[in-house]
Amino acid sequence: MRGITVRRRQALTGLAFAAPFLVGFSVFIAYPVAASGFYSFTDFNLFQPPEFVGLDNYARMADDERFWIALTNTLLLTVTGVPLSIIIAIAGAHLLNLPVRGQPLFRALVYLPSIVPIVVGGYLWRWLLNTEYGFINYFLGLVGIDGPGWLVEPEWTKPAIVLMSLWTVGGTMIIYLAALKEVPRELYEAAALDGANWWTKFRHITWPTLSPVTLFQVIVNVIAYLQIFTQPYLLAQTRLNDAGAGPGQSMLTYAMYLFQNAFSFLKMGYASAMAWVLFLITLAITIVILVSSRRWVHDGSR
Amino acid sequence: MALADSIVRRRRGPRWLRGWRIVPVALLALVFVFPFLVMLSTAFKETGDIFSAPPTLLPTTWTFGNFAEAFEDIPFWRYLANTLFVSGLSVLGTVLSCPLVAYALAKIRWRGARPLLIIVLLTMMMPPQVTLIPVFLIWNGLGAVGSFLPLIVPAFLGTPFLIFMIRQFLLSVPNELIEAARIDGASEFRTYWSIVLPIARPAIVTAAVFQFVWSWTDFLNPLIYLGNPDQYTLSIGLYSFFGENDVAWGPLMAACVLFTLPALVIFLIGQRFFIGGISAGALK
């Protein structure tokens, strides 16, 4: 009897301490998820009550040209941005891991761009990428390349977005740096005695330790790229509140088009359906990555 | 690869080579820092200098004019005060709510702890787009769109990532300390307040730094919720430097420097915690 009351009191204490999150979860997660599912089957413009339309919103995406442009743009950014982030992060982590004086300082400097307000980053890159006065084209000119109009020519806007995003790759780099420090050093010395070259050492000693981290980072980065919004929004911005799309809609990403539908066109139902489709796409890609990982991620137990 | 080389060289490599290792590391850091240098120098350049091709890194004449102009062109101090207000209250909310929930997850023995942990983890994975519209509609229904509430209230209800981070820290706090207080007859809240909170300070500071930087740099939420220019945060307000046909790059960069500075200072103070938190969170 006493046992039960003690247990009940413990449960009440637990609930009391967890109360803020329980409220937050119910109001800002659980209910919105359910509501968003419901809205996705309705026609809803904010001023009239939602009207049930079945699968219309989902069917409409198939014929919506801008939907496909946005999806294609987003996938292009993902397949170029994610591998570049991972490769640069791994290479940079190796450099940061060199035994030099002031290592913590260099580590902090590389991470610095990640704490800059993203708006500052966006406008700063607009300036750096300026065709005439920007430093990027200046540097390209130094090596004899005539720099493109990054934000004016449709075929160059995506590299511009990826470039700006890579500026904040420092977080991933630091995670790889922490992983590198876990690699047993004796193994390198043993390999050196066997006359192994750097690639053999990377392939057989470093990579087994980095591969689980890479799996996680690939997934996190893929999710981030599929949801990419602010970077293209800022680079394409022509008015404060309107998500422009850049030249030839080349910067229109999925999340931007969703935002436009919701807040510019007030098509709340269609936007909700788009959110669910994005979720399903993300889920599908994540599952594919996870399944493929059995072939390339080294599991310590095997 | 590079690490392996470096270890071997430390044993075998000639002495003069060691100092040179700093070159690639410094170059890497320079690539990431360079845009800052451009921002800083543009902020101190006169218009003629800004529009010079090829661009120069240093101003030919240094000027504070851009800063003065920035304060004139836009209500900079107003935006700064708004940003501070939102970030400050969000940090307060985080510091009050997250440790409470983390304590319920890590140190109170009750049946709900495990399901709750799973919910926290699932919530971390929820794509924000899915909840975006209904959450907007909730605030709209409450008549709070166009106020600061949507930017502040959620922090008081706990952020899953930060709850999880503090929970991980609390797991390492020995139970004996807490049990001793309970046996002495201290209430659960008293135990939490006077024993657990002081011990958890490093984790709470880390959470506060994260929350500050998030709120300070947030763009999407102010964009959606703030309608009245009097309430703009700097993230939204900086667009005022863009004109119909041209951009006031000098004043814009001056404002950018001032906008970046507080986040920078907080980062440098909490740098150790911050970078530790990122690496630990990713590996565990």
Q: How would you describe this protein?
A:
The complex is a heterodimer of chains A (302) and B (284). By secondary structure, chain A is mainly α. Chain A is 70% helix and 1% strand. Chain A has one domain: MetI-like fold, CATH 1.10.3720. In chain A, a hairpin with a 7-residue loop joins strand 1 and strand 2 (51-52). The longest helix of chain A is centred in the N-terminal third of the chain and has 38 residues, at 2-39. Chain A is globular, with a radius of gyration of 24 Å. The model of chain A has no long low-confidence stretch (mean pLDDT 92). By secondary structure, chain B is mostly helical. Chain B has two domains: 2-63, no CATH class; 77-237 and 263-283, MetI-like fold (Orthogonal Bundle). Chains A and B meet through helix 1, helix 3, helix 4, helix 5 and helix 6 of A and helix 1, helix 3, helix 6, helix 7 and helix 8 of B.
Quickly count the domains of chain A. 1
Spatially, the strands of the biggest sheet of chain A line up as 1-2
The ordered H/E elements of chain A are: HEEHHHHHHHHHHHH
Q: What sort of overall outline of chain A do the alpha carbons produce when their principal axes are compared?
A: globular
Question: CATH topology of chain A, anyone?
Answer: MetI-like fold
Give me a quick take on this structure.
Chain A is mainly α and 302 residues long.
List the helices and strands and how they pair.
The complex is a heterodimer of chains A (302) and B (284).
Chain A: H1 2-39, E1 42-43, E2 51-52, H2 56-63, H3 65-96, H4 103-111, H5 118-128, H6 135-142, H7 157-166, H8 170-180, H9 185-193, H10 198-226, H11 230-236, H12 254-264, H13 268-296
Antiparallel strand pairs in A: 1-2
Helix pairs in contact in A: 1-13, 3-7, 3-8, 3-10, 3-12, 5-11, 8-10, 10-13, 12-13
Chain B: H1 2-12, H2 15-20, H3 22-43, H4 47-50, H5 65-73, H6 76-106, H7 113-125, H8 128-141, H9 149-156, H10 160-171, H11 175-183, H12 188-199, H13 201-217, H14 220-225, H15 234-237, H16 249-283
Helix pairs in contact in B: 3-16, 5-16, 6-9, 6-10, 6-13, 7-10, 10-13, 11-12, 13-16
